[in-house]
Amino acid sequence: MQPFIPYIFMALALMLMARRTRVWRRVRPPLLALVPAVILALAAFYAWGAQRLGPHITPRGWLAIAGGLAAGAVCGAAIGRLVHLAHDPVTGHVTMRMSIAGAILLLILLVIRQGVRQLGLDPGAAGPAAAFSPLSDVLLAVAVGTVLSRQFVLWRRWRDIATATAQAPA
């Protein structure tokens, strides 16, 4: 049963993403800032554990992590631009709905991350420090870059819509 646990979580994520493509949700600006703060805290906790248990990161490893962060930022910006944002005239709030293309891109990133581990493409993943292999570091950097840039793009788009509707004549 244990080998299937990651796939169960991916199936749950897929169901949540499918729901988000149909339902308009109110954009809550504080959450646009809270999510990156939580992600950065989790990444800092990971970095602390990696420093204590994981292998030493070489300059080439740092370069790969920076590349993963940049690739994640590009993916996150694309996902953020693919989210549908609209002003709801009834409530006056800005609402959002994930696009199918954005959900597919996010799913592809999840499948790649899980597939790398399941196919054994991570030669450094062995023993108790397996969670802190160089490939895991790069994949975490991709995830952090994706979330941070997605939230930043959504915040900028929300701000533009909120400002435009506030300045529009009644």
TrEMBL record:
<keyword id="KW-0472">Membrane</keyword>
<dbReference type="GO" id="GO:0005886">
    <property type="term" value="C:plasma membrane"/>
</dbReference>
<dbReference type="GO" id="GO:0022857">
    <property type="term" value="F:transmembrane transporter activity"/>
</dbReference>
<keyword id="KW-1133">Transmembrane helix</keyword>
<dbReference type="Pfam" id="PF07301">
    <property type="entry name" value="DUF1453"/>
</dbReference>
<dbReference type="InterPro" id="IPR058247">
    <property type="entry name" value="DUF1453"/>
</dbReference>
<feature type="transmembrane region" description="Helical">
    <location>
        <begin position="63"/>
        <end position="83"/>
    </location>
</feature>
<keyword id="KW-0812">Transmembrane</keyword>
<protein>
    <recommendedName>
        <fullName>DUF1453 domain-containing protein</fullName>
    </recommendedName>
</protein>
<feature type="transmembrane region" description="Helical">
    <location>
        <begin position="95"/>
        <end position="116"/>
    </location>
</feature>
<feature type="transmembrane region" description="Helical">
    <location>
        <begin position="128"/>
        <end position="149"/>
    </location>
</feature>
